[in-house]
Amino acid sequence: MQQTKSKGGRKPGSGGRPPGIPNKATRVAREAIASFVDDNAHRLQKWLDEVAEGKPMLGPDGKQLYTDEGEPRYIVPPNPEKAHNMFQSVIEYHVPKLARSELTGAGGGPIGVAAIDMKGLSDAELETMQRLLAKASDA
Predict the structure, then answer these.
(1) Is 55 helix (H, G, I), strand (E, B) or coil?
(2) Any idea of the CA torsion for 106, 111, 114, 115, to the nearest 10 degrees?
(3) Strand-pair partners of 55
(4) pLDDT in tens, 55-71
(5) Reported pTM
(6) Cβ partners under 8 Å of residue 18, min gap 6
(7) What sign does the CA torsion over 110, 111, 117, 122 have?
């Protein structure tokens, strides 16, 4: 009996992984990253806040230290932009980016927009148009 290959290049009944389905290692890695993010969400918020707002340098009495010029001293200086970038880099693994789409008209040209002058339409024609538009929006 001769076996033929399917479109995907696999023999029928071979039990291989279908196209588009991640392999086990990829699936396990994604699940591990998702679990880490979920289990550390409360910590992540604290870390991001410390980066965004800075982590002040405290003296032995627990009060914030200042420079001779009166500026606050930080272990981690405030950096909201860095916190934003860090958040984006973490969330990218948990929520996939959406692909960009470009809309074009016929032959890749601009999309045509037409204005319709309805001033000359009768009441019956306007009612028909309203009914058709309502029907199209329900579909």
Answers:
(1) strand
(2) 180
(3) 76
(4) 999 999 999 999 999 99
(5) 0.45
(6) 8
(7) positive
